[in-house]
TrEMBL record:
Listed SMART domains: S_TKc
MF annotations from Gene Ontology: ATP binding; lipid binding; protein serine/threonine kinase activity
Stated name of the protein: non-specific serine/threonine protein kinase
GO CC entries: cytoplasm; plasma membrane
Amino acid sequence: MGRLKYPELRTTYKVDRKIGEGGFAKVRLASHLLTGEKVAIKVMEKASLGRDLSRVLSEVEALKNLTHQHISQVYEVIDTEDVIYIIMEYCSGGELFDYIVNNKRLCESEARGFFRQILSAVAFLHNRGYAHRDLKPENILLDNDHNLKLIDFGLCAKPTGGISVCLKTACGSLNYAAPELLLGVRYLGSQADVWSLGVLLYALLCGALPFDDSGGKIGELPQKIIHGQYEEPEHLSNLSRDILRGMLQKNPRHRLTTEQLLNHKWVTLECYDPVCYLPIYKHHERDDQVLQILAEHHNLTIQAAWQRLSNWAYDHFTATYLLLLNKKRRGLPFNLNISFTPAKIRAKLIQRRPPMKAQENIHSSVMSPLSPSHPSYSRMVEGMQSRHTSVDLEEQGVVTRSRTSRKRGYDSDAEAVSSPAPTTPVNKRRKTSDTASENRTPTNSSSTPGKFFHSVERKLNKMRNILTPKKKADSDTPAVLNAKDLHDVSVTSIDNPKKVLDDLTAALSSCSILCKSRGYTIRGKVFDGIGSDKKLNNCKLMFELEVCWIKTDERSPVVGIKRKRLKGDTFYYKKICEQVLQLTVK
Ligand SMILES: Nc1ncnc2c1ncn2[C@@H]1O[C@H](COP(=O)(O)OP(=O)(O)OP(=O)(O)O)[C@@H](O)[C@H]1O
């Protein structure tokens, strides 16, 4: 299907299923044919972008300039007459939001680990003169190694005079927007980002939003934000309260700065070092081993290959180099799939096979049928879901001001005020293992064969678990899941899946949720407004609940309900799921 739909990708990528959707893009999983690496492809139709094309272009520019361990790396950009494709690092672990929902809320220590990673990405952005302006858990993804990666730079701004220059376009998601944005005054991007980080940390620690319109009257939310009114749940420690108050400070001048956050006591508690935001790897590093492979494939000298590469055109050449480099850093064999090499060059390469073998031997500890280049590995797929969109606050009528450079990444009439960009913090303490994990390079996590095999086995198990139930989903028997990795599954006390299915259907209809079932999977939809026509556009929330068997080692299988959000506001989804499951999982 993908092959016919995306002709520009046909010879270089194998396009797989859709893994996400935003207001501007559909995101697909794909494999880079030459390296076998999984990538995410953000597909944007120019016709539907209209004036927002500038937003996409600023996202592309930002991504090209921002190489950081906690920012999803761009590999290639294809700009055709009708479509823009951004080929980027695939984050298989889903959105941070879903992780929070599945865990209700995070303990302080886990929240700290995550927050440090996000902070390091945001401080890096600010240091490079960018403000993100759409920080929220839906824009932070988890990779395979449980590391966070920031995505969606469509609203980012890089004022020409630097980060300490005021911006004026109010944009982002209302729940995460700083008071100054709602007041329609000029604001500093870095200060607005710190507010959003505060909302995000609150969500991590409390499993809820500090500023929410649920239960209140429509229109109350902006007032709550402007007045900085939020509740502090009792379980919050004094230090957590302190950092949250510092970030959710309605007066931006009194708000903590990114630099202060790097060294904040809450951030460095448990013997952590201050957060280091510098990238682990140099932006455009020359690696001769990788270059050699690329050069051979293209029948070029190393020097010619480097010359071509150093334009950093983000074309397929760049993508192949960056993907090979990533494989090397992860301790994986980093050769290219020879069957995609032009026939003439392939013949030459086959003659020169021994040196390639020698190179493979260097990595023999990780060569096995479970290697990522093995077909089983490349079939591996993991679940993702779509999300809701950030809004233009002016357009929503939350901020009243004449429309200017709407959603553009570069605010045109910025004015200067002083706010220093963060500088590298001094490491005062010794690194702990936790800090090491925060700053961990992918190589560390998979460089030993044992760890590598363990991780690949885990992935393959996960793949089996995911694929097998899918096949069964249409049939009359529920899927069987293993008790591991079930953070998105609620366990019931009932041992009859049919009864759970019936209870679930009844609970959904009692909550006025439109549902459609297929086998043991129910898709629920909630529509906006009364009497609205039920087009997808008006669909406020869409999710799936699947009744399944859960295999446990200790006792006979139990019946569970697997949840998946497909579209819509994440905290609303959380609330609906809680309501429905309460009625079902008695
Ligand atoms: N690199 C990636 N790896 C895995 N999934 C991704 C990746 N990038 C995006 N996604 C998925 O696709 C969804 C939409 O992506 P993204 O937010 O970039 O789109 P968008 O149209 O720009 O969104 P918005 O409307 O908020 O601006 C994400 O929420 C996520 O679930």
